[in-house]
Amino acid sequence: MAKKQTPIGTEFMKGLWDQNPVLKALLGLCPTLAVTTSAMNGVGMGVATTFVLVCASLLISLVRKAIPTQVRIASFIVVIATFVTIVDLEMKALFPAMSKSLGAFIPLIVVNCLILGRQEAFASKNNPFRSIVDAVGMGLGFTLTLTVLGAVRELLGNRTMFGFQVLPDAFEPWIVMILPAGAFLTLGFMLGAVNTITHRREQAAIATRRAASLTVKEA
Amino acid sequence: MADESSVVDGAKKGVALKAVSEGNLELVTSPHSHFGWTTSRIMWTVTIALLPSLGAGIFYFGPLALVPVIGAIVGAVGCEWVVGRINKKADTVPDGSAFLTGLLLGLILPPGFSPLHAVLGGVVAVGLGKAVFGGLGDNIFNPALVGRAFLQASFPAGMTDWSTAVTRVDAVSQATPLGLFKFGEPSQFLGDITTSKLLLGNVGGCIGETSSLAIIVGAAILLVTRVAHWRIMGSMLLGGVVFSGAFSLLGVGPGPLFDILSGGFLFGAVFMATDYVTSPNTTRGQYVFGAGIALLTILIRRFGGLPEGVMYSILLMNAAVPLINRVTRPRIFGATS
């Protein structure tokens, strides 16, 4: 490759914050909003998606030079669908309760834009090792976001956290939080917080740069 | 360092900026002459117009009905103050808009509502209904109704519990007229609810909406002081008469008088739909807006799952306001086609 490669650590960390699939790229919002009624559901959905993402990224990057450009999307989908079927059947066998509560959203991982997006943007252009690191980082970012989202909704909407009651009985649950509206509200607040932090960092960086350039001019 | 350079830049731009910085020249944007009406004067006028409804609520449901009202006001004003501190902007609490939002929200809560939940409702009303959009004037939905919709979705049991601690010894549990109509026995419904009762207010319901007479007094105050125009109120009432009448002619529903006097129809028409920020700017748009609310309300009452639909109707029409403004934009004088 002609251009300089980003360090592998950055490639991993970008999925957690700088290019977080949900909070920055706003990809895969359908499962994000639909299944995060509890923290455990968030973990389950996140892990299932991460598995598919990692496996698909590995396979796609291995065969990336053999896939004709014209049919690449269809090829990606076939590969993704294969792994989704594996996850679906495995979950039905190993975690029937989780599989039931996630319902149709496990098969729907096939059409999660996050996975297709990573194949198109990364795995089809990078070697298998880098693709796996990228996929694990992205999957982890997705899982963490869904877990936090699910935890907030579960805490306020059901008084519990990972199934254990943490708020007293005197706290009357806000039923709206486990309804779809609660998903939008919580995600909105999370996006607002992330944007605020990003904005402050950018402002600080600009201020530092300006101060530096002023010093240079004076010198 | 940055300050020094900006002063240097300013001096380069000319004398005017220097004069401004020395305080010799005051720069004010237009309008330079106005009517003397301020935001706070309008807000407190509406507050006064709401006092008859509050009084009627206390009269019929007992002094404890004040508790959720105070809770909602505390939540709304507290949230406004905190948001102001976070944004480091001028204190917007004294303009009275947050107080009014809290009072409006309190008046559309059941009389026995938990005060803590009322505080939460006030916080949601100002925080989610107004502050996240950028404050007063930028909100899409009526803040008080956003607060109520949140409470309705969060605490459906508390929001439909119409029992009140009227006397010292026991609590009176009663259904709302609309609830009776939808879920009760028709004979009981016809026997219990008379038009005079609906007019005076001795029926179950939210604190502020029980007495139609008190709301009419409030409407008179708003119209005489010209704080609100009759267009939205009038078109909503007329719409109520027309649509309810049409359905009752077809044999569905109890007829216009009952529909207008019961539930939140009058309260919504007078105090909620007339909110400047969340209603259309154009004359024709205001007629459309009021009639639209009336139509949706009657449809929800007749065919929806809930007995009452004024809140959702107003919120839905709030969402349609930008569209209504666009479609009903007045023709520019002299323009062709």
Question: Brief overview, please?
Answer:
Chain A has 219 residues and is mainly alpha-helical.
Outline the fold blueprint.
The complex is a heterodimer of chains A (219) and B (337).
Chain A: H1 8-13, H2 29-35, H3 39-62, H4 72-94, H5 96-102, H6 113-123, H7 128-158, E1 160-161, E2 164-165, H8 180-218
Helix pairs in contact in A: 3-4, 3-6, 3-7, 4-5, 4-6, 7-8
Chain B: H1 2-13, H2 15-22, H3 39-61, H4 66-87, H5 97-107, H6 115-127, H7 143-154, H8 156-159, H9 177-183, H10 186-192, H11 195-200, H12 212-224, H13 230-249, H14 256-261, H15 265-272, H16 283-303, H17 310-327
Helix pairs in contact in B: 1-2, 3-5, 3-12, 4-5, 4-6, 5-6, 5-7, 6-7, 7-17, 12-15, 13-15, 13-16, 16-17
Which structural traits does this protein have?
heterodimer, A: 219 residues, mainly alpha, two-stranded antiparallel ribbon, 8 helices, 2 strands, 68% helix, 2% strand, B: 337 residues, 3 domains, 63% helix, 0% strand, globular, disordered N terminus
Task: Explain what the structure shows.
- The complex is a heterodimer of chains A (219) and B (337).
- With 219 residues, chain A is mainly alpha-helical.
- Chain A has one domain (8-218).
- Chain A is 68% helix and 2% strand.
- A two-stranded antiparallel ribbon of chain A has the order 1-2.
- Chain A is flat and about 65 Å long.
- The mean pLDDT of chain A is 90.
- Chain B is mainly alpha-helical.
- Chain B has three domains: 1-33, no CATH class; 39-159, no CATH class; 177-327, no CATH class.
- Helix content of chain B is 63%, strand content 0%.
- Chain B is built from 17 helices and no strands.
- In chain B, helix 4 (66-87) runs parallel beside helix 6 (115-127) and helix 5 crosses helix 6 (115-127).
- The termini of chain B are far apart.
- The relative contact order of chain B is 0.10.
- The model of chain B is unreliable at 1-8 and 165-171 (pLDDT under 50).
- The chains are: A mainly alpha (219), B mainly alpha (337).
- The A-B interface holds A 172-177, 179, 181, 185, 188, 192, 210-211, 214 and B 1-2, 5, 114, 117, 120, 128, 132, 150, 153-156, 158.
